[in-house]
Amino acid sequence: MDVGIDKIGFYVPKDYIDIVELAKARDIDPDKFTIGIGQDKQAVPQPYQDAVTLAASSADSILSADDKKDIGLLIVGTESSVDESKSTAAFLVDLLDLPEDIRSFEIKQACFGATAGLQSAYDFVSLNPGKKALVIASDIARYGIKTPGEVTQGAGSVAMLISESPRVLKLEHKSVYMTRNVGDFWRPTFSKVAFARGKFSNEVYVDFFTTLWDRYQAKYDVTADDFSTMLFHIPYTKMGTKALRTLEGKVSDEKYAELMANYQDSVKFSREVGNLYTGSLYLGLLSYLVNAAKANENLLLFSYGSGAVGEIYSGEIQPGFEKVIDKTSLETMLEQRQKISISDYEKMYEVEYHDGTIVDPAGVDAKFYLSEIKENERIYKKNN
Ligand code: CAA
């Protein structure tokens, strides 16, 4: 049975900051941010948006009533969870009008969460013919104002419907993975912002890629020539370039040029949005599908979650994939956002809702939003 991604959708908040303006406000040469880091814009969520509302929004953009009937598994990968006990997934059952006979939970392993969800969904669909699984990556990446990581923030969500006879990407069931206890990036439960050993995290990321790529080639007897494109976890768009550069001189010049060119198509959306944490690899996939992909291409995907877990796996783009992806809506969503000033972003960053907060719906510009915190319980609403 062929199993893989049947539908893929994305949601980004409506506000963003301009990276050149951020650089100027921090007294940094803008080229460092636009060339050295590789970002142009950074999505900024409203205080009434969180991992739950972002997840609801991306899933809502792809699900039909028929899909909902067939879903038996719902997994949300996030490291921006709003509750230490209740999963993001449980909130979504109401917001998305999903049936009750669903196994739902949240997975956390930094930016690896969505890949863990995707592989679990593969197993579930393979064992339950006719059933579908919904996997959602939803995060708000926060390092704090005036930190080195500030330029690598962002927010958004990617939803994927996993089914048999997938119309977008058939998963090959070929993968290699590894775990090492590494202190490159972490967020203690008391903190709203992440801590990172930035340069060390870059080194670990590249080391995971080279180690796993060597193992993948040996295990499946393949080379770079078997793939037209390699997709990467993209905390910032320069990061994947650093991994790809390890192939220079090891693959033909033509292959290296092809991989680099295709990588640029996969990071177009990320340049506009910033870090989605666990959704970043899948935003890269979506960007590639919208901007350059061709039917029957073999993709190699590198997933990395600090702490650290990495996985390389592969998939084949399905003929007709472009009919399942709403390219116009995605591009319109990105184009119709509004730029906010750096000082407005800084003010919004400090807003924290506490018990007793009631959000005025008149000020909400999103379909799904946090409406109230009552007895410390978060209550969500949907605008119709
Ligand atoms: N013009 C052009 N380029 C310039 C420049 C200029 N004027 N000034 C500097 N640069 C270049 C530098 O040469 C450097 O390029 P290389 O990386 O190719 O050498 C690049 O800009 C960045 O410069 P620095 O390394 O000096 O930047 P920094 O010290 O401010 O830190 C960072 C950069 C480490 C990425 C930091 O933003 C950070 O800590 N980010 C968070 C951690 C992270 O994203 N790590 C990635 C792997 S772990 C992961 O994936 C975690 C996750 O998603 C949650």
Automatic annotation (TrEMBL):
Documented EC number(s): 2.3.3.10
Superkingdom classification of source: Bacteria
A GO MF label: hydroxymethylglutaryl-CoA synthase activity
Residue stretches making up the Hydroxymethylglutaryl-coenzyme A synthase N-terminal domain: 2-163
Database matches in Gene3D superfamilies: 3.40.47.10
InterPro entries attached to this UniProt entry: HMG_CoA_synt_C_dom, HMG_CoA_synth_N, HMG_CoA_synthase_prok, Thiolase-like
A Pfam family per the record: HMG_CoA_synt_C
Ranges where the Hydroxymethylglutaryl-coenzyme A synthase C-terminal domain occurs: 262-350
Keywords assigned by UniProt, alphabetized: Acyltransferase, Transferase
Family recorded in the similarity comment: Belongs to the thiolase-like superfamily. HMG-CoA synthase family.
Protein name per Swiss-Prot or TrEMBL: Hydroxymethylglutaryl-CoA synthase
